Amino acid sequence: MKKYIYFLLICLVLLFVSCSPDDDATASDDSTLVIGTYRLTEINVSVAQDVDEDGTASNNMFDELDCLDGTLEVNVDGTWDLELVALDVTSVTGDFYAIRCGRTNNFTGKWTFQSSVLDLNTTNFSTMVFNSSVLTEGINEDLPGVLNRKFIKQ
């Protein structure tokens, strides 16, 4: 009977020793996927506006302003460059705002990428979620505010 107990104990010990936590379960993202050139395609605001006065209001200011533009370069060496036309929003009355293109600004810095999140490591921009070929920066400003910006990989 003792042989069976020893055999059972040895089997249990081997079972616990051989079953360690799966270190591969938290696979890291491949940062090479995010490297490339991205074009700004959307700047969404919290309240739809008819800035171009064509009778159709939109939350996406790209539908309203032809002057908006932006290009983000995510470089192999861990740096990034962004050229971005600023969006100037001024409250007029109620839910009506004067929205126009501002000046073009240039930004640079070092980036990190983990769990599908691109961090430009600057206070000027929020982290961006990478999904396939789209980077989405959630801003969520108060009214009248920018909800998000979307960049599409070229």
Task: Record keyword descriptors for this entry.
single chain; 154 residues; mainly beta; ten-stranded antiparallel β-sheet; 1 helix; 10 strands; 49% strand
How helical, in percent, are the residues? 10-25%
Largest sheet: 10 strands, antiparallel
Number of helices: 1
Q: Would you identify the regions where 5 or more consecutive residues have pLDDT less than 50?
A: 11-15, 20-27
Proportion of residues in extended strands: over 45%
**What overall geometry do the principal axes of the alpha carbons give?**
elongated
Oligomer: single chain
Instruction: Look at the helices and sheets and give the structural class.
Output: mainly beta
Question: What does the secondary structure layout of this molecule look like, with pairings?
Answer:
Layout: H1 2-18, E1 36-49, E2 58-60, E3 70-74, E4 79-93, E5 96-110, E6 112-114, E7 117-119, E8 128-131, E9 134-138, E10 146-153
Antiparallel strand pairs: 1-2, 1-3, 1-10, 3-4, 4-5, 6-7, 7-8, 8-9, 9-10
What do these coordinates show?
- Strands 1, 2, 3, 4, 5, 6, 7, 8, 9 and 10 form a 10-stranded antiparallel beta sheet that branches.
- The protein is elongated, with a radius of gyration of 25 Å.
- The protein has 154 residues and is mostly beta strands.
- About 8% of the residues have low confidence.
